[in-house]
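User: structure tokens for this one?
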Amino acid sequence: MTTQTGMDLLRFATAGSVDDGKSTLIGRLLMDSKSIFEDQLEAVEATSQSKGYDYTDLALLTDGLRSEREQGITIDVAYRYFATPNRKFIIADTPGHVQYTRNMVTGASTADLGLVLVDARQGLTEQSRRHAVILSLLRVPHLVLAVNKMDLVDFSEEVFERIYAEFTQFATKLNVPDLQVIPISALQGDNVVNRSEKMPWYSGPTLMYHLEHVHVASDRDMVDVRFPVQYVIRPKSDDFHDYRGYGGQVAGGILKPGDEVVVLPSGMTTRISGIDLFDREIPEAFPPMSVTVHLEDDVDVSRGDMIARVKNAPTPSQDIDAMVCWMTNQPLRPRQKLAIKHTTRTGRALVKDIQYRLDVNTLHRDQESQELNLNEIGRVQLRTTVPLLCDPYSKNRTTGSFILIDEATGITVGAGMING
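Assistant:
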């Protein structure tokens, strides 16, 4: 079952300040898990020697982007892929600065796990708190605090315990269902892939062991059937004269042939007659599979519609209450009109009200604020031209999220999470 569902894939987002050692950590994961080629490693070793370093600078593996960064070109989110025999990984590497909050929201929105890196010498900074707040707002179900550079504090248990206590106390204010705190040295490899002999006081897992074994299958909503229709498939050939299928990605629940379903927003009911994956029929489909669904009756279904269970369907709504991260220089203000995209459905939205701006460092709600500026997050009321078939974001991250688009430029200007 694992290979079918993509459950053997872990998406994780890393967040850290510039000097917390994020590039070194990702380099260490790639090297110690044997996920890089020998010639890449040789090149990095040669560059390290030519620069006069007495160690191999693993940051060079991931810092091909550094030159662009130095020229002031904005880096969005760098995605990296690697695999071990147990699991495949996608890393969304997001820049740490305040002015990149929108990039972090982009990288973390689909992540199963968020990795916050702190420097053992500095402990928790405003930045690490902000990263934890954003990961919790985005309902990333698993959080790892990696206390890096333990080699620079003599692998001190006391230093680690102090940071651990401070962070766990802070995390009680947030929505963090699963937290793991791991002391590491990315530079020397302690507790990254291989267990450290220098910290015998730590009995928890290494970072790699935790990433390979953290259980993400149960994070997806397997109860509430949600299938946003992306394509209506009607081949024009004689061989498939009567073929009619609806393609899309399962956003929630388990679909099986014979199930009674409702098509929204029309409210027509029918049954599933079959489900195809590529060119074969399958007995069931669940998130995040992309499949083609066939229905018994010739009901009118188009892109943007949603197939759900009759007794458990989302209520169509045109009044949306959401947390919005604003992503562009022109501020978001009441009375503004924008395009909205929710699952496969598009429409227009009017900003009715900004209830408050959230300070992502202190969690303070500023209710005086009448606009959201670039990288700010706030609670916003919208009215849409088409009913959205949505769930609270806390229940389903796919049907609970949307993006806002500037109609004139076509640029994505906001990301929203619907409140329950």
